[in-house]
Amino acid sequence: MTFPFSTLPGIALYAGHAYNNPAALSFKTAGRWQSISSTEFLNSVRHAGEQLIQMGLEPGDRVGIVADPSPFWLIADLAALGAGGVTVPLFPNAAPEVLQHQIADSGMKYLFVGSEETEHLLRRLTGSDGPRILQILPREVQVVSRGEWAESAGPAAAEMFEWDRRAALLKPEHTATLIYTSGSTGMPKGVELTHGNIVSQVQNAPACFPLDSQKDSALSFLPLAHVFERMVVYYYLACGVSVAFAENSKAAGVNLREVHPTIVTVVPRFLEKVYERVTGLIEGASGVAHTLGKNALRRALEKSVDAAPTFKDRIFERFVYRRIRSQMGGSLRLVICGSAPLDAMLCRFFLNLGLPIYEGYGLSESSPVLSVNYPGHRKLGTVGPAFPEVEIRIAPDGEILARGPNIMKGYFGLPDETAKVIDSDGWLYTGDLGSLDSRRYLTVSGRKKELFKTANGKYVAPLPIEQALATHKLVESAIIIAEGRPFVSALIYPDFESLISLKQDLNAQEGGEGRESGSFLQSEAVRNRFERIVESVNAGLNSWEQIRKFHIIDTPPTIESGEITPTLKVRRYAVEAKYQHKIDSFYAS
Which secondary-structure segment (H or E) carries 178? Predict the structure, then answer.
């Protein structure tokens, strides 16, 4: 299947004309779901685009968007793109200094905001010389009905409006967006993607995940500022699939049960949370329900996904697995997981529960998908074969290289940085380490720059150790310290929700998040629990990789503190700097 468009505004035009979907986009407000039809969506995009042009937007002007995901986010995005603008999506919960850097670095002239609170913050950050701030609701972006459009435009709307003329002049090679990197290793850089970069992904998606506008529907709860979700939602629009936007990420579970989607995209942390909730419910059950549930979950963790179902498996399916799936809407046929590595044990667990998990891999610099498992082409523990039109090879030092129509134009305003990652033959140096098997399935083993060399000359890959720690219920995430050190140590963020249960198990007195919480975390009983976790991880490591010392951090990481990125990746350098005194104490003589 080939879609008849080559630029992003073409998606809105195509969807508006090809489908008569009364619930193309839905959102929840005041406790009720409301829908926008495919025609209303296109009319609203044109209307908002015309307003931007009348305000003075010129082709090439950068237009920021700082708002939660919604149909109005998409309307603002495609309106600006069709008018010739370059959209710059930003995370509303990013640290103020990060937002300030991205606004200044991009040189944006207009900035859509999704709330008055965000508007007040950005006005303080940018001052009078900053971009013109526009509210997504209720002024500059609104739903325009067919009748309202006809009344304002007349019978020859497509020919007489400047937005349509400008959209028609766009070329695939024109810059469409600047997407800033997560900043997990330093200040974010603006990834410059063209219309052709992103459209190539939309055009090739049907080869892996064909969708049916009559049967499929989607729930979207990941940020549209993330290139993964943004590209996927463009694909939904192109296929005429109804998309419901979750109220927020915390309400995703409830919204899944309300809208019963057939497809959803997730990050590993979402699946980890589901696993924790399921195991917690089973642990809290009693009698036959507890015994049956424990056995069913153990079977799901251990069973080969290719093994034929036994009589016990059919019992587990009827009384346990089916009920778990119903808590995720009950209709999912595609659960696509990206953004970070998914533990193979968890993937096997969900597959055996009957949830069709398909893990992929990509970067902002590649628009984003480089490889993905998909129906009929899945291998547990890998991130699948190369996405259509994408070439993947492994450099002599193990680095994953990629080439294709989806590879970025470069880092905005940083030609030297661009030259470091894209060679003269168009190969993108991903910075990730990996391998290809005989069937060309890709396995990602870690970051090239995160291969630590200890003072004893031994190499330690931190990512697998950090992932192993994070599979335990009491651990939210961890940072491994080893570079230039005589032995490996770790900073551990506990899962604070699980700590509540642990306090009850230990008959500890509940405390707040200050000193009492800190005292509890440093108590002998809690320390012993975490020591057992570390010992279990060490059992699978070489002697030089084993964790000798660790510290339990007593406050959750936040985006505002700079410890994690808006995509929930730990900012290693920031965490190490914050807890440098503790790290130094590990190695004090």
Answer: strand 175-180
